[in-house]
Amino acid sequence: MLDDPDAVFIDMRNHYEYEVGHFENALEIPADTFREQLPKAVEMLREHADKKIVMYCTGVFVVRKPAPG
């Protein structure tokens, strides 16, 4: 999947973790909190609406958070 040109990888970790290492070409969502990241991610991904979206993080804390709204 990493080589799939139709996939966009979104790193949902904090800035420090992104800087330490991330998948090649993964997008970073600049925000101070996960809650701030989601609307920014939606906006950034509008241009990739026809792509497969892969979001990743480091643990269940982010995965278990419900989307706003």
Automatic annotation (TrEMBL):
InterPro entries: Rhodanese-like_dom (IPR001763), Rhodanese-like_dom_sf (IPR036873). Signal peptide: none annotated. Pfam families: Rhodanese. It comes from the Bacteria. Keywords: Transferase. Residues 3-59 form the Rhodanese domain. GO terms for molecular function: transferase activity. This is Rhodanese-related sulfur transferase. It comes from Salmonella enterica subsp. arizonae.
